[in-house]
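A note on notation is needed here, since sequence and fold are reported together in a single record. The reader may check this reading against the record printed directly beneath this paragraph.
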Amino acid sequence: MIRQCRKSDLDTIFEIINDAAQAYKGMIPEDRWNEPYMPFAELMREIEDGIVFWCLEHQGQLLAVMGIQDRNDVALIRHAYVRTRGQKKGIGTKLLKHLENMTEKPILIGTWAAASWAISFYEKNGYTLVSEEEKNRLLRKYWSIPERQVETSVVLGNQTWRKARHDVLTNG
């Protein structure tokens, strides 16, 4: 079952994020790694900044979380994590498709450039990488992240984003 996360889920969201984020350890720049990867106070700040978390629950257990954040003319998919034991079972795809159906806005996703598995996951789900120049512009416009993270990240857009971008370029 996919449902919006509740306040009572906060500890479990924190646990899932930090379990799944272990894949980044040794992959992302050392100066961007934290222990835990996402401190609880940061999770709370992200929620206060408008990220709405959704989860996939199976037999009373939360297996994955994914956030969606409205940023005026786009929606951002944020903090998409599947428990290590639940990975490679289609859980992330189910959650992503659910969030995609929640908006008609173009969707953007940012992730670490070194996270080839995450990039591949999004590409398999119809997202494409934007250019380096566009990535820098988008990360500075829609995300609140340090400059070092901008340097070491990528952005992917869905088909609606590509169409909107094409229309802007074609029609001025």
